[in-house]
Amino acid sequence: MPAIASSGPPARRAQADDERTCAALYGSNVSGSPAPRVFRCVYDAIGLPRHQYGLVGCPSLESEPNAWSDALKQPDTLGTCITMPLKLPAYDRVDELTEEALVTGCINTTFFRPSDPSDPLSPPLVVGTNTDTPACLSVLLSSFLSLPSPFPPSAPRAFSPAAKAAALAVGGGGATRAAVHALQQLGCAPIYVVNRDEGETEAMRAHFAKWRWDVRALRSVGDAERELEGLEKDGGRVVCGVGAIPCAEPTTDGERMVYDVAEAVFARRYERRAGEAEDEGTLRLPERPVFVDMAYKPPMTRLRVKAEEHGWKSLCGTEVVLENCFAQCHLWTAIEVPADVRQKARELLEQEQ
């Protein structure tokens, strides 16, 4: 297992004439990603016109060399992004891991740091992290707070334990793990997980059990109804959810089960009771539950349609892509993307949908 990162990325701000200017997204089916357009918008706005972001097909890391491992050795590589199916296998192929990567057990982003923190010219180490978690968290917080990121320091970041706010996660891969981490940071418990692969689900549940998180698998509609009845009797309710599966017609029993269970959760009666007590400095329970689908092809996915049919508010996965880009830009350049540039990038993607 890689070492735990002793420090973050270098504090030095990127310059237009830096040698390291290239980043890319690696994985399967990456051609439809809007990330290159977002980064072009951001880089131009923050004075880095030579910086580039590309898309590279890389279906596996099993054989060496591969496109991703080769990129990590190039002197002009600024960092890399990793999507399915590479988020779990890449975890053991970096020099160090951040706390976010350690907690989720997978990575979606790499950056470089000097092997000797006191010497910026020392050989670089490859550090793996996970920006899906803060990205997913930001999208949910934006909905709950009715504010775009970045949020003011005074804004609440989590529900009170007294709110008994539960959540749903759909899937079992690296993106789902990051979503569970985001939901846990929101103060949601329990977090219900539905996935077609029981082994994958159990591996994820066992991983999070190390942190003593309340993650529960739903394996049937009956499971969901029993769990939710118990939750509701105790005064709790599911306030949000995140989907992290491709949008495709279900063809197997396991795939159909996922949609059936998700719909059973969406269909539960949600009520925010008048005068409900809230702790100061915590999130207010939403007027209706919120569902974020990390998939965005098509923008209105099957899960989003089902959620909205039952009164939930749903958000497109391009929102998560945007927040990932903002976080990755900061990691690679030490430049916090300004609020006006974020809005310009949001409008860019809205025009394309």
Reading the helices and strands in chain order gives: EEHEHEEHEEHEHEHEHEHEHEHH
Structural class: alpha/beta
Largest sheet: 7 strands, mixed
Side by side, the strands of the main sheet go 1-5-7-6-4-2-3
Kindly estimate the percentage of residues that lie in beta strands according to DSSP: 15-25%
> Helix content range of the residues, please?
25-40%
CATH superfamily of the largest domain: NAD(P)-binding Rossmann-like Domain
CATH class of the largest domain: Alpha Beta
Mean pLDDT: 94
Q: What is the total tally of β strands? A: 13
Give the count of helical stretches: 11
Low-confidence stretches: none
Please tell me what the overall shape is: globular
Q: What gap, in angstroms, lies between the N and C termini?
A: 41 Å
> What name does CATH use for the topology of the largest domain?
Rossmann fold
Count of spatially separate domains: 2
Report the oligomer.
Answer: single chain
* CATH architecture annotation name of the largest domain: 3-Layer(aba) Sandwich
Computed over alpha carbons, the radius of gyration is 20 Å
List the defining traits of the structure above:
globular; six-stranded parallel β-sheet; seven-stranded mixed β-sheet; Rossmann fold; 2 domains; alpha/beta; 353 residues
Question: Your description of this structure?
Answer:
- The protein has 353 residues and is α/β, with parallel strands linked by helices.
- The mean pLDDT is 94.
- Helix 6 (198-209) links the parallel strand 9 and strand 10 (215-217).
- The chain is globular and about 60 Å long.
- Helix 4 crosses helix 10.
- The chain contains eleven helices and 13 strands.
- The longest helix is centred in the last third of the chain and has 16 residues, at 318-333.
- The protein folds into two domains: 3-130 and 321-352, Rossmann fold (3-Layer(aba) Sandwich), CATH 3.40.50; 134-271 and 278-316, Rossmann fold (3-Layer(aba) Sandwich), CATH 3.40.50.
- The strands form two sheets. A seven-stranded mixed β-sheet has the order 1-5-7-6-4-2-3. Strands 10-9-8-11-12-13 form a six-stranded parallel β-sheet, sandwiched between helices.
